[in-house]
Amino acid sequence: MSTTPSAGHHRLSGSLGVGAIVFMVVAAAAPLTVVAGTVPIGIAAGNGAAFPASYVVCTVVLLFFAVGFTTMARHVDAGGAFSTYVARGLGRPAGVGSAFLALVSYAAVQLAVYGFIGSAIDVLVTDHGGPDLPWGVWSVAVMVVVALLGYRHIELSGRVLGVLLVAEVAVVMVLNVVVVVRGGGDEGLASTALDPSAFTSGAPGIALIFAVAGYIGFEATAIFRNEARDPDRTIPRATYAALLLIGGFYALSAWALVSWWGDEGAVARAVADPGTMLGETATTVLGGFGGDVVEVLLVTSVFAAILAFHNVISRYLHTLGDPASEVAVLPAALGRAHEHHGSPHVASLTTSVIGAVLLALCLAFQLDPVLEVFTWFAAVSVVGLIALMLLTSVAVVAYFRRHPGLATPWQAVIAPAVAICGLAAFAWMTVDNLALLVGGSATVATCFKALLIGAFAAGLLLSLAVRRQAVPDPVPAPAQP
């Protein structure tokens, strides 16, 4: 099949470097939101003061995943990330199924953060004497801004995300440095995270689930391939940089939080009210101004995540409609790019419509923005994205087995095999505890499992139903190991 754009089709354009892509990927992880929300919950419901070590474990497993992922990136000259890689390794139907699974997973997590930001803005405004409006009003306002930015050139989003990311990371790093310089709280700097027996105490499985949730979106580096400068170098470097930055920042911040409160004190404080733990810590360590800054930047952190997720969803839709893509099964209009902005403008508008419909349904059913919208849909996205990484690792092994000589045994078999074992363990723990993650409802958990399986199956069946010219599996010249 020709890879030349059809009439009326315009390729995505951009010159994103490593830094810009890292900004978008790390912004999607919403580092301040994770430290303020996920870390206290992981301490309370997971393995207590040893929770910071969970980020080290997740980073190691995902680094093994990145070895095969980035090696294959050099041989797949197309966007689509997970879907394209799975298609090349396991066949087109599986690739389309993966694309649909990715769409559902990212749409779920975007909906989750729309609920969270609506609640967060409402709290921020009312705390400072503003009007008490329904949370949906704020969510819709954010959706409009995201739609405008998503329609424009990708580099505009990159600049916005860069500014917001630097601000939120900076305030937490200042807090971390002050805690370390002071030698921690009354008990000194914590060492429990270094104790293997402490790590396995409590509920380490729950701890790992909450930890891996903080990495959502890191693999999206490959989504921006068509808008990257020198993608063969940029994508691998951005992937490793994003992983190390995310993992290091989370581990350090969680450790500093435990160090300030002490082992038992951190658990007691997290259990009492996890949502205000970081804010109170910032107020105590940095003063009232520090607490106010954290409260404001928490909103901008969630906004940055929403914008990043919007860009990822838009590019999956663009890939599914792009006539040059091997997973194209949706209308070709989705594969068009704006003549001036070089953005997937049709796919971006479609993403906004999908988000608006989902948000309207949540408002119609009067779901709580945090306890239900955020918690439920964030949980289902974690399950879906872990499954996608597991499928991608299997696809990497299958691809290089068919094309020997393109990668070293370490890149083609050993590292992906280790990643498969680790990701399979994560998947089992997440699915096994999904009911707990959605408020203890087995019915809701079953519905979400069916949704994810149904999304993959729908893509697979649609791929089989849509007859088109078979896509050859291009075999590039052997690369130097």
Automatic annotation (TrEMBL):
Pfam families: AA_permease
InterPro entries per UniProt: AA-permease/SLC12A_dom, APC_superfamily
Main location: membrane
Protein localization: Membrane
Membrane topology qualifier: Multi-pass membrane protein
Keywords: Membrane, Transmembrane, Transmembrane helix
Transmembrane segments: 12-33, 53-73, 94-121, 133-151, 160-181, 201-218, 239-262, 282-309, 346-367, 373-400, 412-431, 437-462
Key word Transmembrane present: yes
Protein name (database record): Amino acid transporter
Organism: Nocardioides aromaticivorans
